[in-house]
Write a structure and sequence with these properties.
With about 210 residues, this protein is of the alpha/beta class. The protein folds into two domains: about 150 residues, 3-Layer(aba) Sandwich (Ribosomal Protein L4, Chain: A), CATH 3.40.1370; about 40 residues, no CATH class. The chain is built from seven helices and six strands, in the order ββαααβαβαβαβα. Strands 2-1-3-6-4-5 form a six-stranded mixed sheet. The longest helix is centred in the middle third of the chain and has 17 residues. The protein is elongated. The mean pLDDT is about 95.
Length: about 210
């Protein structure tokens, strides 16, 4: 699949070939859904917890005698039926981690990238070098590259270009800068357009090809 190679100003330079093994892979919606559910589940902390009757302070003695009062028998004022008592059948600390083989995760990413490419939502730029490291210039560049759409910017490595892009896109709500090695299904699905530098294509091919 061939797409236009543009510069930071949105001007067409030439045509480039997207790696077929990454951007023309079979589309498996179920696999993408499984990868998304796994990522969202693994992001959960699972630290929710309430106190049981054995963990609530107080209630060390029987509130009244067993018989003769006319009231229901009670053993402690920290039983679940009392206000301020312990809780039963409530959340306890647990892990929500889901396992998924690496090859399946890679196949899900290839599938999502193929969907983006098939919908013409992949923009390839030669470089992200801005005139000045200012958010205003990044916003103008994104406006020329993707218009009003949200954009995920993929860069190949941590260098000066990456640092500048991170700083300048940080205050843009509908844009995110990400290293190609950290590409994930949530970000792929969550943004309208994928903006890729020319060098990033080689990184994606090496990771997913």
């Amino acid at each position: 699949m061939k797409v236009d190679l543009v510069n930071i100003a949105g001007e067409k330079l030439r045509k480039v070939e997207l790696p077929a093994e990454v951007f023309e892979a079979p589309i498996n919606v179920d696999l993408m859904h499984q990868a998304y559910v796994r990522q969202m589940a693994n992001a959960r902390l699972g630290t929710h917890k309430t106190k049981s009757r054995g963990e609530v302070s107080g209630g060390g003695r029987k509130p009244w005698r067993q018989k003769g009062t006319g009231r229901a028998r009670q053993g402690t004022i920290r039983a679940p039926q009392w206000v301020g008592g312990g809780r039963v059948h409530t959340p306890r600390p647990r892990s929500y981690e889901k396992k998924m083989p690496r090859k399946m995760r890679q196949a899900a990413l290839r599938s999502a990238l193929s969907v983006k490419a098939g919908e013409a939502n992949v923009v390839v730029v030669d470089t992200f070098a801005l005139a000045e490291p200012k958010t205003r210039f990044m916003a103008e560049a994104l406006g020329k590259l993707v218009g009003d759409a949200s954009a995920l910017l993929l860069l190949p490595e941590k260098d000066q270009e990456y640092d500048v892009a991170m700083r300048t896109a940080d205050n843009i709500s509908d844009a995110k800068v990400l290293l190609a090695g950290y590409l994930n299904i949530r970000d792929l699905i969550g943004f309208d357009k994928i903006v890729i530098s020319l060098k990033t294509l080689d990184v994606l091919k090496a990771h997913l090809g």
